[in-house]
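Trying the structure run again after the queue cleared.
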Amino acid sequence: MRYQKIGSSGDDSFVLVFESGEPVMEKLASFVEKEGVHSARFHGIGAFKEAGLRYFDAESREYIEIPVREQVELLTLTGTVATRKGEPQLHAHAILGKATGECVGGHLKDAVVHPTLELMVVTSPAHLHREFDSSVELPLLQLDADDAQEV
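Done. Tokens:
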């Protein structure tokens, strides 16, 4: 995976270009660590030769694995980087298009790129963080009480 910084105005922007055979979440985590990213949003398009998605069943409070063992178009990949217990944590969702035109989506657990993935990452100077919420048994994004607004 190669990347380049493409802008800075308080928020740093990067373009990441993945090559065929590269593991998406592993490479993205390496980028986050190398660049010291603690708060960011990202989005991308491309294609995978296989992927692992997950669906969170709110009733059972467990993830259901959704293996995708075929070539698919990545119609959209979107997510955030926020700290949890002081370490950056990736949270990514993807929608994948199959050759039949059917789509499948969920939390992106892992994927192998083929032939490419174009990912835009925009960092934030504000530190986003997640805390475990026992009512739903998930680490949820928390807002700064002094700056948060209600609608």
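The helical segments are 24-35. Worth checking whether this holds up in the mutant runs.
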